[in-house]
């Protein structure tokens, strides 16, 4: 599984927590918008096609395309939703753990990316830690978590499975997870969502697009003669 290739990048400045403001990013040829999602911020910047100024309608079309992809990703792999595919997969994984379960092509793509990351990181990135994350208190979106004034004991979490135990059949469109496994794709899904969404926005507008999904940045449609210049600040 190869992660989606990204186009050469065009101008945007951001810190590790946020990009620069809309007014700072905007130029005569760019239009931008930002909104809150998944405990972070999504930034979308659109440049006019063929050197023309970007139009508000271009931003609206790009936003609609991005929203469509991010909504689908949320429905596929949010472990904070009881109706998401990963939650349903975990629920049926106990009594029917020996049977591969049919899932959407999108979840197959996202799990494939997560397993690839696990392989190349030698397991440092492991998508089978969902229940372990719940056990230590990360059981809702970041913006819903509240710091506790009371000391909290960290529970001992015993690993029963790893990424090597997940069986993905891309051709059949099925996944089998071991009993007691809730997939957590948070380490890779936002980056892959940014890749998929920026390509959809480019296809919808025909304009060069830069997208940051909670800090994961992707671009599409830019040319080597007019790149996005990205500055990373610590």
Number of strands: 9
The rounded distance between the terminal residues' Cα atoms is 31 Å
- Strand proportion, as a percent range, falls in 15-25%
Strand line-up across the major sheet: 2-3-7-8
Shape call: elongated
User: What is the succession of H and E elements?
Assistant: EHEEHHEHHEEHEEE
Q: Extract low-pLDDT stretches.
A: 1-26
Count every helix, treating DSSP H or I runs of 4 or more residues as helices: 6
* Helical amount: 25-40%
Sheet having the most strands: 4 strands, antiparallel
Question: How large is the radius of gyration?
Answer: 19 Å
* Structure classification: alpha+beta
Overall pLDDT level: 79
What features would you highlight for this structure?
single chain, 234 residues, alpha+beta, 3-stranded antiparallel β-sheet, 9 strands
SSE blueprint and pairings:
Elements: E1 12-14, H1 22-25, E2 30-37, E3 40-47, H2 56-77, H3 85-92, E4 101-102, H4 105-120, H5 130-135, E5 167-169, E6 174-176, H6 189-205, E7 209-213, E8 216-220, E9 230-232
Parallel strand pairs: 1-9
Antiparallel strand pairs: 2-3, 3-7, 4-6, 5-6, 7-8
Helix pairs in contact: 2-6
Please give a structural write-up:
Residues 1-26 have low confidence and may be disordered. The chain has helices at 22-25, 56-77, 85-92, 105-120, 130-135, 189-205, and strands at residues 12-14, 30-37, 40-47, 101-102, 167-169, 174-176, 209-213, 216-220, 230-232. α2 (56-77) packs antiparallel against α6. It starts with 11 loop residues before the first strand and ends with a strand. The relative contact order is 0.24. The longest helix has 22 residues, at 56-77. 31% of the residues lie in helices and 17% in strands. The protein contains six helices and nine strands; from the N terminus they run βαββααβααββαβββ. The radius of gyration is 19 Å and the shape is elongated. The protein has a four-stranded antiparallel beta sheet with strand order 2-3-7-8, covered by helices on one side. A three-stranded antiparallel beta sheet has the order 4-6-5, covered by helices on one side. The chain is of the alpha+beta class and 234 residues long. A hairpin with a 4-residue loop joins β5 and β6.
């Amino acid at each position: 599984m190869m992660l989606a290739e990204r186009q050469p990048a065009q101008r945007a400045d951001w810190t590790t927590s946020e990009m620069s403001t809309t007014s700072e990013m905007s130029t005569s040829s760019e239009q931008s918008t930002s909104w809150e999602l998944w405990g972070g911020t999504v930034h979308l910047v659109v440049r006019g096609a063929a050197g023309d100024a970007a139009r508000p309608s271009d931003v609206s079309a790009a936003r609609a395309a991005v929203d469509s992809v991010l909504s689908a990703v949320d429905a596929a792999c949010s472990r904070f939703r009881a109706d998401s595919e990963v939650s349903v997969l975990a629920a049926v994984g106990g009594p029917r753990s020996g049977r591969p379960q049919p899932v959407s092509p999108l979840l197959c793509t996202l799990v494939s990316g997560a397993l690839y990351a696990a392989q190349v990181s030698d397991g440092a990135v492991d998508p089978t830690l969902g229940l372990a994350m719940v056990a230590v208190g990360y059981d809702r979106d970041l913006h819903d978590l509240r710091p506790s004034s009371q000391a909290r004991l960290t529970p001992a979490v015993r690993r029963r499975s790893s990424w090597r135990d997940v069986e993905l059949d891309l051709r059949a469109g099925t996944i089998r997870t071991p009993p007691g496994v809730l997939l957590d794709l948070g380490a890779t899904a936002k980056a892959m969502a940014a890749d998929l969404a920026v390509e959809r926005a480019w296809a919808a507008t025909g304009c060069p697009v830069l997208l940051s999904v909670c800090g994961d940045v992707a671009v599409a449609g830019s040319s080597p003669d007019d790149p996005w210049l990205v500055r990373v600040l610590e």
